[in-house]
Amino acid sequence: MEGTYSYQQLYQFAKNIFLQIGCNDANAETATKVLLSADLRGVDSHGIARLVGYVRLWEAERINANPNISIVHETPSTATVDGDKGLGLVVAPAAMQIAIDKAKNVGSGWVSVKNSNHFGIAGYHAMMALDNDMIGIAMTNASALVAPTFSSEKLLGTNPIAVAIPSGNEAPFVSDFATTTAANGKLEILQRKNLDTPNGWVQTKEGFPSNNANELKNGGALLPLGSDRDRSSHKGYNLGAIVDIFSAVLSGANYGPWVPPFPAYVPMPEGMPGEGIGHFFGAMRIDAFRPASEFKLHMDKWIHRFKTAKTVEDHQRVLIPGEPEAEFEIERKANGIPLHESVVADLTELGKKFDTPFN
Amino acid sequence: MEGTYSYQQLYQFAKNIFLQIGCNDANAETATKVLLSADLRGVDSHGIARLVGYVRLWEAERINANPNISIVHETPSTATVDGDKGLGLVVAPAAMQIAIDKAKNVGSGWVSVKNSNHFGIAGYHAMMALDNDMIGIAMTNASALVAPTFSSEKLLGTNPIAVAIPSGNEAPFVSDFATTTAANGKLEILQRKNLDTPNGWVQTKEGFPSNNANELKNGGALLPLGSDRDRSSHKGYNLGAIVDIFSAVLSGANYGPWVPPFPAYVPMPEGMPGEGIGHFFGAMRIDAFRPASEFKLHMDKWIHRFKTAKTVEDHQRVLIPGEPEAEFEIERKANGIPLHESVVADLTELGKKFDTPFN
Question: Cβ contacts (< 8 Å) between A310 and chain B: which residues?
């Protein structure tokens, strides 16, 4: 049944599960922290609800619990990293740290990653830059659920992009979004409630407009940001393509329709051209461009101006990217994280399997 | 009256005009080449049709014909450039060249520019990277025409992003788009034809949906990519904001509603926090990640797979970013560039003023 759980409770449980599948203590801690950052920030689809999915990938022998994450090629400002089939939750922070270290040395760092798996929320990795007074960038490809403009085939993942930008007294600017009109998690919410989607989220197997929240199960596809050609869906398609190329063609991971699926029961694509899934990370030191104190004053001015803009009737105010998530984080750290009954059931079963009771 | 003109004809005319406003020969050549690359690629709104606009900015003493473009701050992989009030058409290629040179040395180069003006099409600058086997990135802010999600005020420009990626035998991948549902040039076409816009392009002064192609003149606004909250306009708003911050908050240019307008007759915003408009450029050497030959094989495979995807009924095929523009370029180099009668009239008048007959 539905319930609300403290961060500490969920942390201990998830960490125990990661230990059970063979992660060492440091890897189990990192994976847990990244995974639960989604629950804290209100991105429920990418948090502990996915723990079962990661375990299934491990059962399918697609996850290496203690990967040897290595740099296979580098210059002073770039690196290509082999994730050695590790959990993306572990590979991604290690790769982002390499980007940050390079930025410390030469102003910026850019890391493309192959042979990884799903990395949780992109925002977590981008935000690692903030404490270093750097701008952070994180993106990843994912298995194909999205049809490019004019295509009836699914060729791209929801391929998110996150950008985190430091500020002064204001909360930092944290943008983190799928390059589709709607992320898959939003469809799942409508499915549970038996509701139709708004126009422009999905198309049928043949490529016709649909409002059926279950359309993906019928062979349909998600639509790129922009929805249709009249509203510039080619721009969303371009964005998703750029993420795919930076993450996978640059690193040697799989791309386009060949990206391995997250659900372990879905068969792997045939003729895969690379290794695992791909990510891309960037870090730029603010003071590689101008003094950080100066930048932060102007960022605060930027944020303040947007926050106080005149709004459309009925709307409270213009939101700054990352604000709703930061509010979730405060609220959920204080009052706990609500879990849907199906998630509680999954975790309970998982706990039994690994002799690690949930609750 | 309407007519079709050879590239050489337009090149000579535009170069002469730039010489007349005091550009030295090298600057006049660069400005002309960048400006006309828009006409060649079919982006008519950003080409020679804007020559009059640049001249008016010069008349208003907002343009320095021979700027002293200088690096004011740098690290091995980054630089901040002061455009010295130059034509963006001249400042941008110089700044992109700095990014490319840095990439040659340390793998990647990233340049934020202040004190510049409009730089033509973003794609031109990004494509400078291609001949160097580099990925090129170019973006710019622009005067505020766009209302963020929930805002009735215009706070962002159409803030385009261009990304150019080398390929092998296939044409390169060149994405270049405004972060709005529709660029202003598309509205102008509808205005001339007295047609309504599709849903999701513009809103009224109060922030209500509209289909009036003249809505901007009534105090209305363009909408961010995504159109409305149901179709994730906050993602287009985020993208436009990121372009604004990378281009201007990082460099010390004006941002948000304070970006100087392109039309010289529009008064400058009050209380401007920076200098001129801002751009941001990036260059990444392919072989800073993996051997270029390997990358190009996979890029060709990527492009081929997308090109040959099954399409939605009635659609020829899935387009690769930059393909339509490359086709325009071949066609227009061979058969000339068609100009609208109002553009011909503007250029004829401009020619008279500067004793440089058009035609």
Answer: 151-153
Residues of A in contact with B288 (CB under 8 A): 73-75, 77-78
The closest CB to that of B256, out of A155, A182, A305, belongs to A305
Contacts of A314 (CB under 8 A, 6+ apart): none
Among the partner residues A110, A150, A319, nearest to B319 by beta-carbon distance? A150
Burial letters A246-274, b for 16+ CB under 10 A, else e: bbbbbbbbbbbbbbbbbebeeeebeeebb
DSSP conformational letter for A319: P
Domains of chain B, earliest start first: 1-66+323-359 (1.10.1530.10), 68-181+223-321 (3.30.1370.60)
**Cα dihedral across residues A306, A311, A316, A321: positive or negative:** negative
| CB within 8 Å: A249 and B200 | no
* Nearest residue on chain B to A74, alpha-carbon basis: B288
Indicate yes or no: CB of B249 within 8 angstroms of CB of A302. Answer: yes
* Mean per-residue pLDDT over chain A, rounded: 96
Task: Please state whether beta strands B108-116 and B78-82 pair in parallel, antiparallel, or not at all (unpaired).
Answer: parallel
Q: Does A288 touch chain B (CB under 8 A)?
A: yes
Which token pair is B235? 């993602």
**CB of A332 within 8 A of CB of A8?**
no
Asked casually if ipTM beats, i.e. exceeds, 0.90, the reply is yes
Contact (CB<8Å) A295/B182 = no
> Span A242-267, mean pLDDT?
97
Q: Say yes or no for a CB contact (<8 Å) between B305 and A256.
A: yes
- DSSP code of residue A216: G
Over range A343-358, report the average pLDDT: 96
Which region, left, alpha or beta, applies to residue A233 given φ > 0 means left and ψ of -120 to 50 means alpha? alpha
Tell me: the pLDDT tens digits for B256-279? 999 999 999 999 999 999 999 999
Could you tell me if A78 lies within 8 Å of chain B, comparing CB atoms?
yes
pLDDT band at A1 (very low <50, low <70, confident <90, very high): low
| pLDDT greater than 90 at residue A2 | no
Per DSSP, the residues of A88-139 read HHHHHHHHHHHHHHHHHHHSEEEEEEEEE---S-HHHHHHTTGGGTEEEEEE
Contact assignment for B321 to A110 by CB distance below 8 Å? no
Q: What is the pLDDT of residues B212-264, one digit of tens each?
A: 999 999 999 999 999 999 999 999 999 999 999 999 999 999 999 999 999 99
Two tokens, residue A211: 């409002």
Nearest-neighbour CA in chain A from B305: distance (Å): 8
Q: What residues of chain A, 172 to 231, have a C-beta less than 8 Å from chain B?
A: 173, 175, 177, 179, 181-182, 198-201, 203, 206-208, 225-227, 230-231
Q: B95: part of which helix (H) or strand (E)?
A: helix B88-106
What pLDDT, on the 0 to 100 scale, is given for residue B1? 65
Q: What is the pLDDT of residue A169?
A: 97
